[in-house]
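Prompt: I keep going back and forth on a fold encoding question. Comparing notes only helps if you start from a blank page. Show me how you would write down a chain together with its backbone fold. Please set it down just below, with no commentary around it:
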Amino acid sequence: MTPTRASLTRADLAPLARAAVGPQRTLVAVARLPGGSKKGVYRLAFDDGTTAIAYVWSPREDYWSQPDADPRDPFSHASGLGLFTAAHDRLSALGIRTPHLLLADPDRTYLPAEAAVVEDVAGGSLEDALHRDPDTARAALERLAETLGALGAHQGPGFGKVALVDNGGTSHGGSCEQLVTDRALGDIDEVAARDPRAAQAREVLREAVGSLAAEVRSRSRHPLVHGELGPDHVLLTPDGDPAIVDIEGLMYFDAEWEHVFLRLRFGRHYDALRAPGLDESRLRLYTLAMHLSLVAGPLRLLDGDFPDAGVMRAIAEYNLVRALDLIGR
């Protein structure tokens, strides 16, 4: 059995918490929240009954075996305080709700790692609300659709991570669709080396990606997208407003990439988020590419000691079956 990595303790996090909220409150308990694979997410509980959330970016909190991420690659490892603060600044400037930033510590003053403390949005996740009471959650879905509209209305001068583009940088690659195509072909080769079903279908998958890519026409507009906006990445305020989290991957890219993921993760609730004017050719290419990515990524994560291995295996299996279905295998 793979040993669980040690979580940070109250003593570890007390200096960070004190800097974020001041000396008038005392940290009495901490809990590492489940599910994260790139950063540690800790709920901080204080003696006056209030709470906050600490984000910690360090190798001990990151389950991915990643080399130094190339910021010019839109799909490179989206982890780190710099990506977070750039995304937070952009969203805040647009009036898009995300947890309020209480403290950012890029200099590692309070921990031997980059860290931030943010508001603890108290209304639970949209995912939980959809399971508990879909009718009531409908209003939150409609507000999330407005958020997506605001994201889509803001366009960048090029495609790529917000931290890069907003600072005048340019990404590798000639277009969003070319990046997605190249990534999908790489994912096919990686998955084929790990699963005999993919190995048997390897050439058919590569031909399908090439054929779908050939149908996509060039485009110059690049709206803002979250990139992995599932219902678990949407928290609800007490008033029912959506606040988006896990924002380090925020980038300027094709809206179709966002909507393929939304459709996959929201399932029967996606209709409330559907947007007009999406390009069907891109949707077809990106759907196959997304499924391939959601096989390769989880299988790669399983090479390490990620604690929820069963969840990752299920994600990989589901998406491999979907990818093979798309090519009639």
Observations:
- The chain has a mean pLDDT of 95.
- The CA atoms of residues 203 and 321 lie 16 Å apart.
